[in-house]
Amino acid sequence: MTDRPPVDQRNCTEAMTLFEAACDQAARGNFDEAKKLYERSLRLCEDSVVRDAYLEFLATIGPM
Fold it and tell me: What is the pLDDT along the chain (64 residues), one digit of tens a residue?
């Protein structure tokens, strides 16, 4: 079992804002920008919803 550092709620709030922006960019077809936003979001707060959406996004767009 590994100990994780405590989650900084501010980071998770910012991560969700980035996640929403990533979804918006993906819907507009701006896949490069969406990928960057998803990755920034995941670096701030490892969230299963964001991770799952990011993996689905990658599967949809294929290799870049």
Answer: 455 555 567 788 898 899 899 999 999 999 999 999 989 998 888 778 888 888 888 888 876 5
Please give the distance of CA 9 from its chain centroid, rounded to a whole number.
Answer: 16
DSSP secondary structure of 20-63: HHHHHHHHTT-HHHHHHHHHHHHHH---HHHHHHHHHHHHHH--
Locate 62 and state its tokens.
Answer: 């294929």
Residue 53 · residue 20 · CB < 8 Å: no
Distance (Å, whole) CA 44 – CA 42? 5
Look up the pTM and report it: 0.73
